[in-house]
Specification:
With about 120 residues, this protein is an alpha+beta fold. The protein has 3 helices and 5 strands; from the N terminus they run αβαβββαβ. The protein is about 25% helix and about 30% strand.
Length: about 120
């Protein structure tokens, strides 16, 4: 991921940097990022994320690939707030969003953002 850089330029830069070490494939049009943040974020996510998100087990900078409420997702913890960012297939974005909002309902208004 690269902020402030278009997909093709980022892909070219990454290909050059990783030449002979890794394959690079532009996935920017097939995914969306959903951010979940706040004091109760762990409680919300515990309803569908099968990974221990306790601060001693999963901290800022940690990442995982797993299923969340039966949907494949890549996610990472951005900071200690805690804030998590999930990358899901664009075709699952609405279902994932609805799951997060539904899971957060008992805790009040969720802080969730959907980006491209």
């Amino acid at each position: 991921m690269g902020d402030g850089e278009d997909g093709p330029a980022f892909e070219q830069r990454l290909r050059a940097a990783l030449d002979g070490l890794a394959s690079v494939s532009d996935q920017s049009d097939a995914r969306t990022i959903i951010r979940v943040s706040g004091e109760r974020a762990r409680d919300v996510l515990a309803k569908g994320v099968p990974i221990d998100l306790h601060p001693s087990a999963f901290r800022a900078g940690d990442a995982a690939v797993t299923t969340v409420a039966h949907m494949g997702a890549h996610f990472w913890q951005v900071d200690g707030t805690p804030t998590y960012e999930f990358i899901v297939s664009r075709s699952f974005a609405v279902a994932f969003w609805e799951w997060v909002v539904h899971s957060a309902a008992e805790f009040g208004e969720p802080t969730v953002n959907q980006g491209n």
